[in-house]
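Fold this sequence, please.
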Amino acid sequence: MREYDNETLTKVQKAELGILRDFVDLCEKNNLTYFGIAGTGIGAIRHGGFIPWDDDIDVAMPRDDFEHFVDIAKRQYSDKYMIMNGIENENYPLLTTRWMLRGTEFVEEPLKNIKCPLGIFLDIYPLDKIPDDEKLFRKQARKAFIYSKLLILRSIPYPVLGFGGIKAKIVHAICAIVNVCMRILHISKRKLYDKCLEISTMYNKLEKTERIDFLCDTTAYLNIHYISDIYPLKKIKFEDMQINFPNKIEKNLTEAYGDFMKLPPVEKRKNHYPYKLKF
Protein backbone atom coordinates (compact mmCIF):
# COMPACT_ATOMS: atom_id res chain seq x y z
CA MET A 1 0.00 0.00 0.00
CA ARG A 2 1.20 3.51 -0.87
CA GLU A 3 -0.05 6.24 1.41
CA TYR A 4 -1.94 9.29 0.17
CA ASP A 5 -1.45 12.69 1.66
CA ASN A 6 -4.52 13.55 3.74
CA GLU A 7 -5.81 16.21 1.36
CA THR A 8 -5.76 13.94 -1.70
CA LEU A 9 -7.33 10.96 0.07
CA THR A 10 -10.08 13.16 1.48
CA LYS A 11 -10.77 14.51 -2.01
CA VAL A 12 -10.93 10.99 -3.50
CA GLN A 13 -13.29 9.82 -0.76
CA LYS A 14 -15.50 12.89 -1.18
CA ALA A 15 -15.80 12.24 -4.93
CA GLU A 16 -16.67 8.58 -4.31
CA LEU A 17 -19.32 9.55 -1.75
CA GLY A 18 -20.90 11.76 -4.41
CA ILE A 19 -21.07 8.78 -6.77
CA LEU A 20 -22.51 6.60 -4.01
CA ARG A 21 -25.14 9.22 -3.24
CA ASP A 22 -26.32 9.25 -6.86
CA PHE A 23 -26.20 5.44 -6.99
CA VAL A 24 -28.37 5.06 -3.88
CA ASP A 25 -30.79 7.70 -5.19
CA LEU A 26 -31.11 5.85 -8.52
CA CYS A 27 -31.66 2.50 -6.79
CA GLU A 28 -34.23 3.81 -4.33
CA LYS A 29 -36.19 5.66 -7.00
CA ASN A 30 -36.35 2.49 -9.12
CA ASN A 31 -36.77 -0.10 -6.34
CA LEU A 32 -33.45 -1.79 -7.10
CA THR A 33 -31.73 -3.95 -4.51
CA TYR A 34 -28.15 -3.11 -3.56
CA PHE A 35 -25.99 -3.51 -0.46
CA GLY A 36 -22.49 -2.65 0.71
CA ILE A 37 -19.93 -5.45 0.93
CA ALA A 38 -16.29 -6.20 1.75
CA GLY A 39 -14.19 -3.21 2.85
CA THR A 40 -17.23 -0.94 2.72
CA GLY A 41 -18.94 -3.17 5.28
CA ILE A 42 -15.83 -3.26 7.47
CA GLY A 43 -15.54 0.51 7.23
CA ALA A 44 -19.18 1.07 8.12
CA ILE A 45 -19.11 -1.17 11.19
CA ARG A 46 -15.59 -0.46 12.44
CA HIS A 47 -15.21 3.22 11.49
CA GLY A 48 -18.67 4.55 10.61
CA GLY A 49 -17.49 5.17 7.04
CA PHE A 50 -14.34 4.66 5.03
CA ILE A 51 -11.54 2.53 6.41
CA PRO A 52 -9.13 5.43 7.14
CA TRP A 53 -6.61 4.46 4.45
CA ASP A 54 -9.11 3.09 1.92
CA ASP A 55 -10.01 4.70 -1.39
CA ASP A 56 -12.93 2.77 -2.85
CA ILE A 57 -16.54 1.77 -2.22
CA ASP A 58 -17.86 -1.71 -3.02
CA VAL A 59 -21.53 -2.51 -3.53
CA ALA A 60 -23.27 -5.66 -4.74
CA MET A 61 -26.52 -6.23 -6.62
CA PRO A 62 -28.44 -9.36 -7.64
CA ARG A 63 -27.94 -9.84 -11.38
CA ASP A 64 -31.48 -8.75 -12.41
CA ASP A 65 -31.26 -5.53 -10.38
CA PHE A 66 -27.75 -4.92 -11.73
CA GLU A 67 -28.93 -5.19 -15.34
CA HIS A 68 -31.77 -2.77 -14.66
CA PHE A 69 -29.31 -0.40 -13.02
CA VAL A 70 -27.03 -0.43 -16.08
CA ASP A 71 -29.96 0.27 -18.40
CA ILE A 72 -31.22 3.20 -16.30
CA ALA A 73 -27.74 4.61 -15.69
CA LYS A 74 -26.93 4.62 -19.41
CA ARG A 75 -30.23 6.30 -20.32
CA GLN A 76 -30.53 8.84 -17.52
CA TYR A 77 -27.04 9.51 -16.13
CA SER A 78 -24.73 9.26 -19.15
CA ASP A 79 -23.97 12.99 -19.07
CA LYS A 80 -22.33 12.62 -15.65
CA TYR A 81 -21.23 8.98 -15.45
CA MET A 82 -19.79 6.24 -17.63
CA ILE A 83 -20.38 2.50 -17.28
CA MET A 84 -17.18 0.45 -17.59
CA ASN A 85 -17.09 -3.32 -17.94
CA GLY A 86 -16.06 -5.93 -20.49
CA ILE A 87 -19.22 -5.39 -22.52
CA GLU A 88 -18.68 -1.65 -22.87
CA ASN A 89 -14.94 -2.00 -23.56
CA GLU A 90 -13.23 -5.34 -24.24
CA ASN A 91 -9.94 -4.00 -22.86
CA TYR A 92 -11.38 -3.82 -19.34
CA PRO A 93 -10.08 -7.08 -17.81
CA LEU A 94 -12.33 -7.51 -14.77
CA LEU A 95 -15.83 -8.90 -14.18
CA THR A 96 -16.84 -6.05 -11.91
CA THR A 97 -18.57 -3.01 -13.33
CA ARG A 98 -17.38 0.52 -12.55
CA TRP A 99 -19.69 3.53 -12.48
CA MET A 100 -17.17 6.24 -13.27
CA LEU A 101 -17.35 9.99 -12.88
CA ARG A 102 -16.82 11.64 -16.26
CA GLY A 103 -13.97 14.11 -16.55
CA THR A 104 -11.86 12.32 -13.91
CA GLU A 105 -8.98 9.85 -14.11
CA PHE A 106 -8.18 7.13 -11.62
CA VAL A 107 -5.75 4.58 -13.07
CA GLU A 108 -4.34 2.00 -10.67
CA GLU A 109 -0.80 0.74 -11.14
CA PRO A 110 -1.92 -2.78 -12.26
CA LEU A 111 -4.17 -1.25 -14.95
CA LYS A 112 -1.82 1.48 -16.18
CA ASN A 113 -1.32 -0.15 -19.61
CA ILE A 114 -4.99 -0.99 -20.18
CA LYS A 115 -6.38 0.86 -23.19
CA CYS A 116 -9.69 2.05 -21.82
CA PRO A 117 -10.80 5.16 -19.93
CA LEU A 118 -10.69 4.80 -16.15
CA GLY A 119 -12.08 7.41 -13.77
CA ILE A 120 -12.98 7.80 -10.11
CA PHE A 121 -15.51 5.05 -9.59
CA LEU A 122 -18.00 3.03 -7.60
CA ASP A 123 -17.22 -0.72 -7.82
CA ILE A 124 -20.34 -2.83 -8.48
CA TYR A 125 -20.40 -6.61 -8.03
CA PRO A 126 -23.25 -8.46 -9.81
CA LEU A 127 -24.28 -11.52 -7.81
CA ASP A 128 -25.52 -14.72 -9.44
CA LYS A 129 -27.24 -17.84 -8.18
CA ILE A 130 -24.97 -20.77 -7.37
CA PRO A 131 -26.15 -24.37 -6.98
CA ASP A 132 -26.87 -25.84 -3.57
CA ASP A 133 -25.03 -28.99 -4.63
CA GLU A 134 -21.47 -28.34 -3.44
CA LYS A 135 -19.83 -30.48 -6.14
CA LEU A 136 -21.61 -28.56 -8.88
CA PHE A 137 -20.66 -25.26 -7.25
CA ARG A 138 -16.99 -26.18 -6.94
CA LYS A 139 -16.92 -27.24 -10.59
CA GLN A 140 -18.45 -23.88 -11.52
CA ALA A 141 -15.98 -22.07 -9.22
CA ARG A 142 -12.96 -23.76 -10.83
CA LYS A 143 -14.11 -22.76 -14.31
CA ALA A 144 -14.79 -19.19 -13.22
CA PHE A 145 -11.36 -18.94 -11.62
CA ILE A 146 -9.56 -20.23 -14.73
CA TYR A 147 -11.37 -18.05 -17.26
CA SER A 148 -11.37 -14.89 -15.14
CA LYS A 149 -7.60 -15.21 -14.64
CA LEU A 150 -7.09 -15.87 -18.36
CA LEU A 151 -9.06 -12.69 -19.05
CA ILE A 152 -6.70 -10.72 -16.82
CA LEU A 153 -3.61 -12.36 -18.34
CA ARG A 154 -4.84 -11.58 -21.85
CA SER A 155 -4.34 -7.88 -21.04
CA ILE A 156 -1.82 -7.96 -18.19
CA PRO A 157 1.11 -10.35 -18.72
CA TYR A 158 2.71 -9.43 -15.39
CA PRO A 159 -0.12 -9.20 -12.82
CA VAL A 160 0.42 -7.91 -9.30
CA LEU A 161 1.24 -10.81 -6.97
CA GLY A 162 0.96 -11.07 -3.22
CA PHE A 163 4.48 -12.45 -2.89
CA GLY A 164 8.00 -11.84 -4.22
CA GLY A 165 11.34 -13.53 -4.74
CA ILE A 166 12.07 -16.40 -7.09
CA LYS A 167 8.51 -17.69 -6.80
CA ALA A 168 7.17 -14.41 -8.20
CA LYS A 169 9.67 -14.49 -11.06
CA ILE A 170 8.60 -18.02 -12.01
CA VAL A 171 4.91 -17.15 -11.85
CA HIS A 172 5.44 -13.99 -13.93
CA ALA A 173 7.36 -16.00 -16.53
CA ILE A 174 4.46 -18.47 -16.79
CA CYS A 175 1.94 -15.61 -17.00
CA ALA A 176 3.91 -13.95 -19.80
CA ILE A 177 4.05 -17.22 -21.75
CA VAL A 178 0.28 -17.67 -21.37
CA ASN A 179 -0.27 -14.10 -22.58
CA VAL A 180 1.90 -14.66 -25.67
CA CYS A 181 0.17 -17.97 -26.47
CA MET A 182 -3.30 -16.40 -26.28
CA ARG A 183 -2.24 -13.55 -28.57
CA ILE A 184 -0.68 -15.98 -31.09
CA LEU A 185 -3.87 -18.06 -31.05
CA HIS A 186 -5.96 -14.88 -31.47
CA ILE A 187 -8.03 -15.61 -28.37
CA SER A 188 -10.09 -12.47 -28.02
CA LYS A 189 -10.67 -10.61 -24.78
CA ARG A 190 -14.39 -10.40 -25.52
CA LYS A 191 -14.69 -14.18 -25.92
CA LEU A 192 -12.97 -14.71 -22.59
CA TYR A 193 -15.27 -12.16 -20.95
CA ASP A 194 -18.33 -13.82 -22.48
CA LYS A 195 -17.16 -17.20 -21.20
CA CYS A 196 -16.75 -15.81 -17.68
CA LEU A 197 -20.23 -14.34 -17.88
CA GLU A 198 -21.66 -17.62 -19.16
CA ILE A 199 -20.12 -19.54 -16.25
CA SER A 200 -21.22 -16.97 -13.68
CA THR A 201 -24.85 -16.97 -14.83
CA MET A 202 -25.27 -20.66 -15.70
CA TYR A 203 -27.59 -21.37 -12.74
CA ASN A 204 -29.62 -18.17 -12.78
CA LYS A 205 -32.61 -19.93 -14.32
CA LEU A 206 -32.98 -22.10 -11.24
CA GLU A 207 -36.17 -21.11 -9.44
CA LYS A 208 -34.48 -20.90 -6.06
CA THR A 209 -31.04 -21.40 -4.53
CA GLU A 210 -29.75 -20.80 -1.03
CA ARG A 211 -26.78 -18.67 -2.09
CA ILE A 212 -25.65 -16.00 -4.54
CA ASP A 213 -22.04 -15.16 -5.34
CA PHE A 214 -19.63 -13.05 -7.34
CA LEU A 215 -17.52 -15.86 -8.76
CA CYS A 216 -14.74 -13.95 -10.49
CA ASP A 217 -12.95 -12.39 -7.53
CA THR A 218 -9.59 -13.43 -6.08
CA THR A 219 -11.42 -16.67 -5.28
CA ALA A 220 -15.00 -17.76 -5.95
CA TYR A 221 -15.55 -18.17 -2.21
CA LEU A 222 -14.90 -14.60 -1.05
CA ASN A 223 -18.31 -13.13 -1.88
CA ILE A 224 -20.73 -15.97 -1.14
CA HIS A 225 -23.94 -14.66 0.42
CA TYR A 226 -26.73 -16.82 1.82
CA ILE A 227 -30.10 -15.38 0.86
CA SER A 228 -31.26 -15.88 4.45
CA ASP A 229 -28.35 -13.71 5.65
CA ILE A 230 -29.12 -10.84 3.27
CA TYR A 231 -32.78 -10.05 3.89
CA PRO A 232 -34.27 -7.99 5.28
CA LEU A 233 -31.58 -5.45 4.44
CA LYS A 234 -30.61 -3.00 7.16
CA LYS A 235 -29.31 0.55 7.11
CA ILE A 236 -25.89 1.29 8.60
CA LYS A 237 -24.17 4.66 8.81
CA PHE A 238 -21.48 5.23 6.18
CA GLU A 239 -19.97 8.69 6.61
CA ASP A 240 -22.95 11.09 6.39
CA MET A 241 -25.24 8.53 4.75
CA GLN A 242 -27.35 5.55 5.77
CA ILE A 243 -26.95 2.76 3.19
CA ASN A 244 -28.10 -0.83 2.80
CA PHE A 245 -26.12 -3.79 4.09
CA PRO A 246 -26.99 -7.49 4.46
CA ASN A 247 -28.92 -8.18 7.65
CA LYS A 248 -26.13 -10.44 8.89
CA ILE A 249 -23.21 -8.46 7.48
CA GLU A 250 -21.09 -9.17 10.58
CA LYS A 251 -21.38 -12.93 9.97
CA ASN A 252 -20.48 -12.52 6.31
CA LEU A 253 -17.43 -10.39 7.07
CA THR A 254 -16.22 -12.78 9.75
CA GLU A 255 -16.46 -15.72 7.35
CA ALA A 256 -14.52 -13.80 4.69
CA TYR A 257 -11.94 -11.94 6.80
CA GLY A 258 -11.86 -13.42 10.29
CA ASP A 259 -11.67 -10.86 13.12
CA PHE A 260 -12.47 -7.85 10.96
CA MET A 261 -12.81 -5.54 13.97
CA LYS A 262 -9.10 -5.81 14.63
CA LEU A 263 -6.95 -3.35 12.68
CA PRO A 264 -4.55 -5.18 10.35
CA PRO A 265 -0.81 -4.48 10.65
CA VAL A 266 0.41 -1.66 8.43
CA GLU A 267 2.09 -4.04 5.97
CA LYS A 268 -1.24 -5.78 5.27
CA ARG A 269 -3.31 -2.68 4.67
CA LYS A 270 -4.51 -2.21 1.10
CA ASN A 271 -5.75 0.56 -1.13
CA HIS A 272 -5.86 1.33 -4.86
CA TYR A 273 -3.27 4.13 -4.90
CA PRO A 274 -3.45 5.49 -8.47
CA TYR A 275 -0.69 5.61 -11.07
CA LYS A 276 -2.64 8.53 -12.54
CA LEU A 277 -5.21 10.70 -10.77
CA LYS A 278 -7.20 13.66 -12.05
CA PHE A 279 -10.20 15.30 -10.36
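Residues 6-278 form one domain. Residues 6-29 form the longest helix (24 residues).
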